Each structure stands twice: as structure tokens, then as C-alpha cells.
Please model this.
Amino acid sequence: MTNYVIGRLISALITVIGTTFLVYGAVRFLPGNAVEIIASTSTVGGPNAYKQVEHELGLDKPFLIGYGDWVKQVATGNLGKSLINGQSIARYIKEGLPVSVELGLMSLFFGVVFGVPVGVLSAVRQDSWVDFALRSLSITLLAVPGFLIATVVIVVASKVWNWNPPITYIKFSNDPVHNLGQFVLPAIILGFSSAAALMRFTRTSMLDVYRQDYVRTARAKGLSQRSVVWTHAFRNSLIPIVSVIGVFMAYIIGGTVIFEQIFQLPGVGRFLLSEVNTRDYPGIQAIALIFALVVVVVNLVTDLLYTVIDPRVRY
Amino acid sequence: MALDTAPLQSEPLDFRQSAPRPFLLRVLLQLVRDQPLGFWGGLIPILLMILVAVLAPFIAQAPPNQQNGDILLQAPSLAHLLGTDENGRDVLSRVAYGARVSLWVGFASVGIGVGIATAIGMISGSAGGWVDLILQRVVDVLMAFPSFVLILLIAAVLGPGERNTIIAIAVFLLAGPSRVIRGQVLSVKGNMYIEAARVVGCSYPRILIAHILPNVFDVIVVIMSINIAFAIITEAALSFLGLGIPPPSPDWGSMVSGTETAYLIQAPWIIAAAGGALAITVYAFNMLGDALRDILDPRLRQL
Amino acid sequence: MAENYWKRLNRRRFLAGLGTSAAGAAVLLSGACGSSSKPSSGTPAPTSGSGGAKANIPVLPEISLVPNLKNIESGTPKQGGSFQAVLGGGIPDQYDPIRDAGYPGLEVAGGCLSNLIRGHYPILGDLTIEPDLAASWEQPDHQTTVFHLRPNAKWQNVSPVNGRALTADDIKLNFDYIRTAQPDFVLGPMFSMVDRVDATDAHTVTVHTSIPYAPLLLNLADIWAKVIPHEQYAGDLAKQKPVGSGPFIFDHFTNGVEYVLRRNPDYYIQGRPYLDELHWHVFDPSNPNLAPAAFKAKQIDTGGAATVSLAKDLINAVPNANWGWRYGVLNPMMLNNSVAPFTDERVRQAVMYAIDPHPIIQITWQGFGRQAQQIPLWYKEYLLPDSELPQRDVKKAKDLLSAAGMSNLDLTDKTFQGGQLAFGTLQVQQSLKDAGINLTIQQQQWADWRVNVYGIKGDFQCTMGGEFDFLSLDRQLWNSYNSKGAANNRHVNDPVLDKMLDDARGIFDHTQSVTAYKAISKYITDHAINIPLPNGTTPIATQPWVKGWFFDWSAGALLEMNRLDSVWLESH
Model:
């Protein structure tokens, strides 16, 4: 077991190092006029702007040295300064993370709360009209983009009730009720529209497990339907479901980018978009790295969770 | 690998697996017969949409970018079956030409991305050793980024445009599918006939292409169909954010963007048409993907 | 040359951020005399709201709106309240309007910084110049202006100025700063003729120009001509918060989200400002629904409408809102006069005659637009009569092209993201086809465009954009068309025009000034140096409880940012 854990940790570490390479390298190979453009927009100004920007991006040193410097800098928590306005990027990310995490977790919550039971129900009532209806619903949710649902909801709500989502971020520490109220709508829409995949996956997973011998045995033994479904079938279908939640999280993280923009939430995703629009490469680098780290950690956690859920997994 | 001395399996060794077969026909017949949802809800709408895209010049009642100040925001009528938008452009025309864009981006990005992923997966799976190790670490790195974030970043670096959108999505698709294909190759690798082919003296590339690829093919088809839906939605999301296909090109994503939703109340047909087309296409590809998966290999349900 | 200048230029973004972009109607300014280039002496009393609903205010074709602006002046000002506004034009990157501040930077900084003198141009009134830091001023001759500062003027009580008195020395230093010969000091050319500034005593400043310079006062009343503490001149622009002598103190911000200013208790006008807080929000510019929706939900105090239908919707939803609109920012098709094919005047003229303004008005401005001229439409006296403006003539365009040796022409229009949807670009493309001119639209990212098209590089043939309108025609035209202008992105190098512009600066007589500028306008038009495209307008609204002030696209755009000390809120 420890070997497995250590193995996964090392693997995760290698992945992290790889992502730093990729993230650093992507900026490294920017075309020349991109640097020119940054130089013209940066507040550094003056005739030495180009050189200054090159220096800030580490482009005046050989690749490995520049890479090393950057990694060292990042490891100490200095994520660099925005080339556009000189602000500390780490500060933005620090301020934005709670927002994105809250949106992500709440969306995950709604997605799971909606997707999993519906998937189970759909599986248990396979090929009945309930199944068809639920499957159609889930496919519809998958087919209509979440951002479209969100914008339509907002426009209609504004027209009918003169309502608009709050335009300023209400901190949880200041006002928990209103904070939750602010996040509920985007979380529900994002969660539900992502839940479709989860729903279908739960269904297939349950169906597979359902056909297994041990389920038939449980039935034959006379156990109640509830016991069969939840104690036996569900628990075993959890393994693939847990793995999908990991992927699901990645999907939600992507969704937060758009949803933060639509709902005016000052999270990391919205920050990423503004960095992308202004081509503020230090910011783009930093956020990309953070996102990748989050995904690696989430995957690591789910992999380790396997060892808990599935006693067969012992490497 | 040592010869398998285990007791005979319940199924006889099937050498037919390595021979070419009329794949498309077989699949099509099975679709019609066993998978009504996949056929009527999947393949047929897709074919219709492709038809719409191809026949766009004939379906359209006006060129998609032609503006006409006299007919702004008109409700659907005989002259304009899906109405007009805020620039007086015919919505039906834009939806039809938009089908070209979306389908092209979908097919191209998936074709390229999954194509290269197949190569990676096959090489990785069959070569093993260092090659496998290194390739899989690279794939790990690519997979460490949330899908949309990675695509957003690539699109940001490359800039807007159809070609860049295709590249961005294709790069993302290099990763996940290669994993699955590698897994498939690994499981096929163990089969006896591969061993037999090697003993007989088949060259490595020949084994790859003639023996392994046909067995991996099923997986590839399913992955492709599922990911086309993903590609189409992602392209729409990029255009929604202003990073995908620039205006005035008719494309479903920008037709449902923030600037268009300003007209939602007084001209709902614009968003209904583009959003509907988008939803139908994505729905259809998902249904087809599901059905193909059911036909080609029930064991593939884990996908 | 002008790269940073154009950072300010993204009108479409600005308007989109406010929830307005391409629509609205025109209300030509009422008021008999456009006093726009008359220097005034003494302290003119502010003339506000002269007259109510004037007979010559055209009515919007589809919406019958009467500006409700008289309501704004009624009632007794109350202290207190927090004002919620939307920042247009993007995210502020820094706050020094002299060195370089984009629109958003200026909107935020406007409440913190003071002018020497400030302008006021109410929708229902005339332009006047009011005291700000200077309580009074006189011009003993055409080259000398003496300003008398308020004795109680002081800087805000924050670092680095810590509440010290604002004296003539500060003004002198500020002038020196403005006149620093840096290429990105856009105001520089407007004051390069100032050769001496003397602080004759603690509260008196004498400004001397090397030539008789008529637009001096108007340019000093310009929104950009702010007074900044000398402690900030050399600093890192990005790190400096706006510090000045204005009615509000910069308090805190979350970059890209909100910028909050609080009341300055030491403001030199007693009893002002009325507001406790000024709260700027950043809205996603690609979502024009957001600002109207927030306005309807009473989350913001000032807003507007992106489209006619949104305007109608807002009017119905908030019946007592104060509405106002007038033609603002110019929308030219800018030609690069120094590259082929536009070095040949005939080709420029061909393009001019080929363009059909009618669809632009119909589609981009949704009917609320007007054919434009080289100068903003509110300069009523300076406008050329319709008979002197070019009318569309496709045959003439074709003839001109053949005379220049071409049967058809391929042009590339480089525009920034989203730019092709604004300014009438698509309609221009369509109408040019009729004359055999093939316009390809090339989209670039905003920063690319700014550097390559508007920067010194000038790597473009034509582009469309918005241009601010300024208080003085000198700033408007000299900076853009003089070969030494700081905003000469059309790369014009015409000695005849140069001389006309230089000469016009010295004309103090009003009638002669009008004649001179009309001649310049006609020259630019006849030689197609610049092609104006129809102006649209932007209906702006404030909530019924916003008093004493109206956010308006007045001359010098954002002029009303100079007067945030007069806003007060009724309880609601």
C-alpha cells in the first residue's frame, strides 16, 4: 500500500515538474512581436521597454537558467507581477481562489446530488419510460451549453422580475446567507449542466455492476431492493464514479471560467480571462500552473481514495 | 512473452480479427437494427445537418453576411424562414452556413487530435519501455490542465480564428484518447496471434498497422464520435468568449454570445435557431457515440 | 508617437461597459451661442439648464423621450450616500492623465484630481468654463494669462502630500510636467508654446506663451489637464494611486472588479462633496445586457442602453429615470495618408464618394445616427452646410479610381476584436463593393492593433475607430492633422494644412476663428484626408434619485467627471 502511495506521489511530482516546463516553455517561445506588444502596453514605458519586458519574462537568459529562476521564484510564492499594471499576481490569485473554490465545490455538490441519484434511478429502472425520460433530460442538459442556459436565465429574470445577480462579491465571512445566495444560481446551472455526464456514467456503471453475479446472489438471498441497490451495487459502482468525479471536477473548473464571467464573480477564472485578453503572460503562466496543480492534487486524492473504497486495489 | 499454457478459453481464437472487414456496413446495419435511438436520434440528424451544411447556398434565402437595414430584427416569415437579426441578416442562412463552420471545426479538430493520439497510443503501447514512459509522462502533463483551460490558453497564445481553434482543440484531444488507445493496444498486444505474427517475421510497423490497428479501430470510432460533440460545444464556448471564430463569420457560438442575448426578448428566434442547431448537433453526436459504443464493444462502457 | 493616446480610444468598449454601444438618437444642442473657443475672463457664473424643453430638440423616431433633466436641479442637497457607477472602457492600468491614462483610469482619477479650470456643458445649456483650483483669472494680453488660486486649496491628506497647501509652485511644476517633451504626453503639444510659468506669489500663477494662443483656456479645462503632485512625477506609474486635491480620495480597489473612492473632508469647496463614497464597478464589456439589467435592478445609479429596444425596455422599467443623449464621439474611417494607395488623393476621394452612410445609420446606429463632419456635431457654428459635404456618388468614385490608374482596388482594414461590428465597418465594406473597392477586414487583438496600427509603426492602410471630442478644436484638429501632432495616426504631412492649423491657434476673434476652422474642416474634407462616418449617439440614464449632476457624453467626453462634487442622492 505504501508503495502505491509513494509511487503515485512520485508520479504526481513528475507531472507537476512537467507542467512547469510546459507553462514556462509556452511563454518562452512567444513570437517576437508579442514581446513588442507587451512592451507597448506595459507601464514600464520608455525606450527600454522591450528590453525590460524581455528581462521580466526571462527571455534574455538561456532556457534552463530562465526556467530555473522562474521555478525558484514561484516556489517562494512570488508569482510575478502583471506586465500590464505591475500588480502582484499572487495577490490576485489569493483573492480569487476562495471565490472559485466556493463556486467549484457548490457546483460539484449540486452536480453530484442531482446526477448520481438520477443515474442510479435510471439504471434501476432501465429501459422503462423513467429511464428514457431521465436519459433524454441528461442529454439535453449536455447538449445545450451551460453558458447559454445561464445567459438566457439572467435575461429572462431581468425582463420579468427586474432582477439581476449581485454585482459585487459578498464575502462569506461578511454575510454568509447572501454569499450563498449569490453562488446558488451559478452553481446550480453549472452543476446541473455538468451533471449529465455524471448521470450517464453512474447509470452505466450501475448497470454493469447490476449484472454481476454477486448482485444476483444478493437478490437470491432475499435481500430487500434497497439493500441490494445501495449496499451492494452502489458501493461497487463507486469506484468508477469516484474516478469520474475527478474528471468532472476538471470540467467544472473549466466551467467556472465562463460562469464567473457571466455572474460577475471575481474568481481566478475571471482573472484568467482578463489576463488572456490583455496577453499578460506572467498572469497566464501563474494561473495555468495553479490550475494544473489543483487537477494533479485532485487526481492524486481520488487515486488514493480508491485504496479506501476498493480493497482489491493494492499495488 | 511466453506462450499461454492456460486451459482452452471458452471462445476459440479468432484469427478473423486481423483480417479487414466491411466495417461501416456492419456497423450501419447494427445501428438500424439494434439501436433505434442512436440511429434516429443520432445518425439521421447528423446526416441531415451535414446535408444542410453542404446545401447551405441552396437553403439560404440570402447570403449569410448580407446586411439590410430595412429588415432588422424581423420575426420569421416566408421571406426569411427563421427571421432576421440585428443587422438584417437572414438567420436561416447564418445557421446553415454556421453548420459548415461547426461541423468542419468538429471533424477537423477531432480528426487531427484523435488521429495523432492514436499514433501516440499505438507507439506507446506497443513499444513499451522508455518510449512508453516518456510519452505517457507528456500525456500526463497535458492531462493535468482542465480541458477548457488548456484550450483557452492555446487559443489565447495563437489568437482567434478557425484554424487556431482547431489546433487548440486538437492539442487537448492528444492526451486523453491516447491513454485509452494505449490501454487497448496493451490488451491486444497480449493476444497470441500477435506473438505468432512476430514469430513468423512480420516487421514491427506491419504488425502495428495490419494487426493492432484494426482492433483498436472500434475504440477510435467511439472516441471520435463522443469528442466531436465536445469539440463543437467548446468551439461555441470559445466564440462566446470572443476567442474563437471572429465576426462576422456565421458560427453558432457567436450567434448565442452575450451581444446576441441582448436581443433575446425582442428577437428570440436568433438564439432559438442557433442554440437549437447547436443542441441538436451535440445531442446527435452523443447519441451516436453511445450507440456505437453499445454496438462495438459493450466492455467499452467504461468510456 | 500616439500609441498611448489610443489606449484611451476604445469607445466601443467604453460604451459597452456602460451598457451602451451603438445606438441612440441625436439631440442637437440647444443654446444660441456656442462659446467653444471664446476665452473668458473673470469668473463666469455657471449657466445651467437654460430653458426646459426646447423647441428644436428632435425627438427620437421610435421612442418619445423628453429629457427629464430639470428634475436633476430640484431639491436641497443632502449629505451622504454611496454612488454606484460602471466603469467603461476596460480596466484602469494607471492614473496619471497627463502622462497616460486611458478612459477607465481617468474616470476613476477624475474624482480625485482637480483642474485649474473646469468646463461644464449641460445638455440643455451652453458650455461654460468654471473655476476649479483657480478662483479667477484674466488675460491682460493674448500671450499672458494670470490665474488666482483659491486661498484654501490643499492637497488631500494622504501620502505623499499629506494635506499640505496647494500653492502656485505646485501649478508651475505641473505645467513643467505637462510640457515635458515625452512622446506619450499627449497634452504636450497643446502647451508646448508655454514658454514661461511664474509663481508670482503663493496664490498667483502667470502663464506666458511664445505665440498668441487662443485655445489655452479651453485646453486647460480639458479633462486631461489635471493637477498632479510633483512627488508623483517620477514614480512608477503602475504603483501610484491617484492623489490630488479633488473631492474624493482613492480608498481601495480590487483590480478588474471595483474601485472605491471616499469623501475628502478637506475639499476646498465648503460643504462638498455631498457623497460619502464613489464606487466604480467593472462590467464585462462583451456583455451589453449587464449594465441595463443592473440599472433595472437598481444596483447602479447611472447606466444606459446598448440598443434602441433595450432603451425602450429600460424606459418602461424605470419610468422616472433621467435620460439624456447627444452626439458624441466621432467615428472616422482613418486612412493612412503616407502609404499606398492613399498617398494619392484621388484614391482617398474615391473611397469617400463610394461610401453610403445610410445603411450605417440604419444598421449600426439603428436609425439614431447622423451624417458626420470632421468635427463633433456640437460645434454648431463651425459645421459646414450640407451643400459642402460630399454626397455618395459611385460613378464619381469609379472615375477617380480610373484617373488614379486603377479599375478596382483591394484594401485591408485592420480592426481590433469586435471592431468590425462597430463603426459601420461591415456596411462600409458592402457599399465599397459597388465601386469596385474590395475591403478585407482583418481582425487583430486589441494590443496588436494599438501597436501596429495606431502606434508609430502605422502599419495599416485604413482602419475604423472612435475618436474623442475635445473642448477645443485646436486639440481636436491640430493634434490629429498637424505633422507634429501627438495623435497624428493618419500620418498626415501636408504643409498647407500645417500652416492653417498653426495660424488658427492665434486667432482670438470669434468670427475669424469660425472662418478659419471651417476652412480647415473643408480642406480636410475636400482632400479626403479623413473620412467621417455617421455619428451615433448614446442614451444615458441616471436613476430618479440622482441629483445635481448628469453623466453625459459632453464635449471633452467625460467632462462631467470633473464635477462629481455636485452629485447628491435623494433617499430611495
About this structure: Confidence is low (pLDDT under 50) at residues 1-66 of chain C.
